[in-house]
Amino acid sequence: MAHLLRGLAANGSIRVVAADTTDLVAEALQRHGTSLTAGAALGRTLTGALLLSHVLLENQRDRVTLRLDGGGPLGGVIADAGLDGSVRGYVRQPLTELPPRHDGKLDVGGAVGRDGEIEVIRSHAPYGDPYASSVRLHSGEIAEDLSGFLYASEQIPSAVLLGVAFEPGREARVRAAGGVVLQALPGAESGVLTLLEANVRAFGQFTERLAATSLLQAMEELTWGLELEVLTRDALPLAFRCRCSEDKALEALAYFSPGEREQMIREEGGAEVVCHWCGEARWLEPERIRALTRPELRCPECEALWYREGVTSMVRDGERCACGRPVELPA
Ligand SMILES: [Zn+2]
Ligand SMILES: [Zn+2]
Fold first, then answer.
1. Predicted local distance difference test score (pLDDT) of residue 211
2. Contact (CB, 8 A) for 67 and 77
3. pLDDT in tens, 288-327
4. Residue 200 phi, psi dihedral angles, 5° rounding
5. Contact 281, 91 (CB under 8 A)
6. How far apart are CA 18 and CA 84, in angstroms?
């Protein structure tokens, strides 16, 4: 079962957050039907978002969204996680495959691309505006980029290890997935940091060690000589969990005009809505689609939805519609 452990080392001057995400990454890759390279990128990002939530969030209901887009063929990878241990995410082009790198590893950096940004959005439910910050991508390999983000945007010197290892063979069966963040807190002595760096170098591939030993053992090896103190008495369970529902799927259909919805019913006998976060497909019957009758306002030119009762993210007065017409909302 996927789980997360937190700890402190070197008299509280080093924070350690580590996660074994093998099961949930396997589920995510299966849900999205990813290639090996896209799966590695998604698995690293899901794990990174979970680790990040324990570095950046304080309230149980807050969420962190991690997004990387470097202009590569993946077209972007995104994950959303919370302190409750739930995470969801997707890649825009899940079938992307690239030749392996010279060292034989999957070319995640090439798939993500390096010309773009890593963005982190913190949302505070149920009030407050989301807070977004972003920095330039370094490598597209995700762990290095996350470390760059934590340093440049949060002034937290951190080492980040992330990995997804597949079973040998052509099938994308996940053997191990996980990661760790090691964070230097204010007051960390330089001797401590030197030892920590040496430990990280000697540790090797995170997933190799995870497949061979336990998460706790991996944390102990990374903090060798620094007296690890584990803070989580019970490991926090982690799971791939989406927040989609039939009601939300129905709301997605509201963006089509009543005429287009009738056409779907005529031609398909209903409508299938696929959640892009989790890949779940939902079939909606004609009577549910026809019950979409809440007050709404559409562009007189192109029928694009401008306003719909109960939906918050709508166009604003004075903005331009996709067709170019200035939006006019009734007062
Ligand atoms: Zn979903
Ligand atoms: Zn329009």
1. 92
2. yes
3. 998 887 777 888 888 888 887 766 556 777 788 888 888 8
4. -65, -40
5. no
6. 15
Report the separation in Å between the CA atom of 251 and the middle of ligand 1, taken as the mean of its atom positions: 13
- Which ligand number lies closest to the CA of residue 241? 1
The domain spans of the chain are: 3-240, 246-293
Domain at 246-293, CATH from 3.30.70.2190, 3.90.1280.10, 3.30.230.70, 2.40.50.140: 3.90.1280.10
**Class level of CATH domain 3-240:** alpha beta
Write the DSSP string, 167-184. PSSSS--EEEEEEEEEEE
Contact 69, 79 (CB under 8 A): no
Main-chain phi, psi angles of 68, to 5 degrees: -125, 130
- Encoding tokens for residue 49? 């978002």
User: Is the pLDDT score of 219 beyond 90?
Assistant: yes
Chain centroid offset of residue 228 CA = 28
Q: List pLDDT tens digits, range 225-273.
A: 999 999 998 999 999 999 999 888 888 888 888 889 999 999 999 999 9
Q: Which ligand is nearest to the CA of 88?
A: 1
Residue 105 Cα to ligand 1 middle (Å)? 31
**Closest ligand to Cα 325:** 2
Ligand nearest to the CA of 280: 1
Å from CA of 325 to ligand 2 middle: 6
- CA dist 145 and 163 (Å) reads 14
16-36 per-position pLDDT tens digit: 999 999 999 999 999 999 999
Distance 305 CA to ligand 2 centre (A): 8
Task: Record the tokens describing residue 53, joined without a space.
Answer: 């939530």
Judge residue 309's burial from the number of C-beta atoms within 10 Å of its C-beta, 0-12 exposed, 13-18 middle, 19 or more buried: exposed
pLDDT tens digits, 34-46: 999 999 999 999 9
* Ligand 2 centroid distance, CA of 93 (Å): 29
